[in-house]
Protein 1
Amino acid sequence: MDLNFGKKYKDFTKEVKDFCKKYKGIHFIDSSKVPLSGSFKSGEIKMTRSDWQKILIEKGYFARSIPSEYGGYGGESDIIKSRIIAEEFAKSKIPPPMGGQGIDMLVPTLLELGTEEQKQKYIKPTLHGEIIWCQGYSEPNAGSDLASLQTKGELIDGNWVINGQKIWTSTAQYSQMMFCLVRTEPDASKHAGISYLLIPMDTPGIEIRPLVDMTLNAGFNEVFFTDVTIPEKNIVGKRGEGWAVANATLSHERGSLSDPNAMMNRLNSLIDRMKKETINGEKVINNPVYRDKLMKIQGKVIAFQSNSLRVLSAKLNKNQDVKIAAMIQKLVGTELRHELEGFAIDIMGELGTLYENSPNIRDGGSWQIAYMYFLGLIIGGGTSQIQKNIISERGLGMPKEPKVQQGA
Amino acid sequence: MYFGLSEDQIFFQDNVKKFLEDNAPLDVIRKIANEDDKTSKEDLHKGIITLGINNILIPEDNGGLGLDLLFATAVSQSLGEGIATLPFSGSYVMAPIAIKYGASEEQRNFYLNEMSNNNFNFSIGFSEFFGSRNESELSFLKNKVNGKTFFVMDFDYATHIMVCDKDGQIGIVSLESTGIEVVDLITVDKTRVFKEIIFKNTEIDILENTSSSKEAIDNAIDAGRIVIAADSLGASKAMLDKAIEYSKERKQFNRAIGSFQAVKHMCAEMAAELEPCYSILWHAAHSFDSKEKNKKIMACHAKSHISDISKMVSKKATEVHGGMGFTDLLGLHYWFKRIGVNRQMLGSPEIVREEAAKSQGL
């Protein structure tokens, strides 16, 4: 066991700390509605998000291993540095690099499977936050059973003509592009009939309807396609290979849904809140029942954080087997975060129910929002139940559910 | 950076595991636990001593192996997994650590040398410090001890008892002394031996540094909690493995029950909660070994968190086995009970979590 990252990283940590100090209090002038993945305090230094992305790339704090010809930093991939950056940014509450499905999922996919032209055209503006992407996977009748999707793509006169409907499409209303799974080979088997297409969102025939979620934000959309026509070359991989292409990105998504640094920050905010709130004149933190529950959650958070260290270690030490430890992170991380946020509401009691711009609201209402938002994450990206199927079948080697006779 | 057990630690762990698989199958455990078969137990103890598990934490200068707590933790996982009917956490972990931090140099060399020669074997009674009960109380006066303490652990081969008072002062009593009454305590877990001890003006050798410092008692209890958590984690792993294996074999409705999501999800839940337990456990042992300032918080959380998860696993894994899980025939209950007793040893989860809160200034 050795938790030191070594001298090289000590220096790097100092460099990042100094950087964080310099940019503390950064404030975006284009307060775009695309949500950032972390929380930060806004302040005096003003710039656009795109400028911020460029600064981060220039320092190698973002897009580190992406070749410079595609707009990245062009360095060696270094997960320890990535972790130090994430930790220090979270600690000093300066905005993390933009995430989102374009950066987290499409860019790695294009790097792996895209044509040279696609790489040249899309990666750089995506990294700079100039092209926002949305993901067109789920459909009303294709959720957990995603491969049964029915949105149809036909190749007519050198163009794909797309008809159908997608749902749960986050950020569709701000996006310039969609990466989308479409059934292009209706006669092939379920998984072999899908292609991965890149669709400009301003193409005629696309209609976006906001889908208001339980937080009362339109976090998702429904997207309807009526004879949407795009060039034939807007395909990643070959016809019928879309399922494999998408699976390359799904694994990118699952890892990003439960960040242990954000969790530790929230736990610390919860402790601060418990020191401030009182019941009948006594601080909540001194109430034995709440105290015990807090410690219970802290134990779980520390275990989860330690687990992510172990998973990180396996990326550096190739002989280490952490298959199941890595597999459980989405399930455990989202469930735990939901529990933590829910407990914060309980310690505030009636005041915990306040919402929007109510008088007496605590921490900007963030506890209720996150409590509901994380229920969304428990469901999204493969529900907890789907996760349990994956863990038991692929992790523990338990037998698969016998297949019911397949419809096309 | 490397987060995990080293090759040496895994090797040691596997050796202990293999030894128990070869020498302590369920019928041997049953003989020892149910029929008090002293010969079988003695053979097992002698065998495992040759692997050196009694000497892990004793410095090389005193004839020990001079290894750290992470080694002991790795070994303890195997002992729990193989449900070893042997002393460990008290005799071979807490005792040398209490002596290391609490003894004068003279005491230290004397006791540690005798321990590594296997002449002295310690049982441990520290309950007065973390959770004294109504009927118990120990008082040390000069070199005499009076009163009663419960739950003295690892009494199996004890030549000495190490006890402490409510202030964390630690003393050693030789079982050859006069004024000792030993009462058998019968717990649900018959794989281990617990006693109640009543002292009447009994001679005690107080560890010199413990009258002015709590370092010895704190370290001994932190370490004890970590290795007991490891024992529970090993036992939980054994239970989950058995549940998975059974679910693949047992057929109902013409299918292996492991193909039903209801069963599969129970196993996934156990695995999902157990994985972070390995991580917090090794992290806690590492924090202890490298004397990090959060080591007490880590030890407390490792103990209470793993106790909770193990309790869940002991229930669910039994349920996966259906009615058979409830029988003595299958013997699953040995692991269930081991986990149940570990949970209370050195502080129930609530007691331990309160210590975690206090130790971070809350």
Note: Chain B touches chain A through 48 residues (CB under 8 Å).
Protein 2
Amino acid sequence: MTSVLHNRRTVLTAGGAVLATGLTGIPSFVRAQGLAPTRSMRGGSNNYLPGAPVVERIGAGGFWMTGTVRRAGDGAPLSGQRIQIWAHTTEGHERDPHSHGATLTDENGVFQLEMPQIVPAFGQPHGHLAYDSADFKTVFLRPVMRRAKDTSLEAHFILQPA
Amino acid sequence: MRWGTSILIWSILAIACAVPLAAAAMSPLLAWRQPVYIAAGFAGIVGMALLLVQPLLAGGVLPGLPPQRGRRVHRAVGWGLVAAVVIHVVGLWFTSPPDVIDALLFRSPTLFSVWGVIAMWAVFAAAALVAFRRRLRLHPRIWLRAHTTLVVVTVVGSVVHALLIEGTMETKSKVALCVLVLAATTKVVRDRKVWKTGLPPRPKTLGPDRRSGA
């Protein structure tokens, strides 16, 4: 897994984040310093199958799972981090291995993976995401879609070193 | 009761139970579910329909089923309701074990699971009161209050559970069924004056005391 480097890009991005949050009242450097790690959501790890392969897309696609991965504390974007994604979709149940896939974050800490349309299961249209690699502590997320017809869903990770 | 009225009442009840089932059978979600998940969902809908039938039987308000006979059917339907709940939960467990374990342990992220599990335990307890009625030797009115309390928890829990779920049930027919279940339960419980203070003398025969009721 890529370790985090303080190169010019991350410093610039972090600087941009500081500027972006600068107008909210709290001194931005305090907020950035204190960026709390994301806690796992209840039920986030349900039907997790460790080691989902990195894929171009899951199944035939048509739905986008997007998000960001940043480091706790300074909020630096983390590149090359593997995010695993699974859901109940039009092409399979959460427990089906073919419903699982993984993707890597780009240099801005952004990830996006195309997957089949998520459909409501167990009462809510929701997806599952996992960060479960060596460098940072494991986090499981379970975001819920506002409407079942939505064709995208996002989730954001703030990770703390393992 | 006149013939026409009888037919009307039974027709309304049949429609109230059948329409939500038929509407759910047309849900697009079914295309993406395996049979055990579909069966589990429909067992839940059947359970909701039986929750509508139960108070009507207990209150003896259905034509052709006066209190004595109605209560016998009420008991049989009650066991059917317990079976529906068991099939619902077991079917969901086969579909996704961790989600059901979370629900049963009250650590699920979804609020409706909490209501559903509370309703499940309440209906099991209400059925247990029936099963152990003789052995418990409670005063009939105390027994009736306990049974009714558990039933009210079951009904409220099931209705909130169903309304919060985004599933195969079509919204309008689901809301209509829930309103009817609440209305029927409220009417029968009120008519029987279950919580009227003071205990009447213990009747000689076993069975819910109706003399002080409606």
Note: The longest helix of chain A spans residues 8-20.
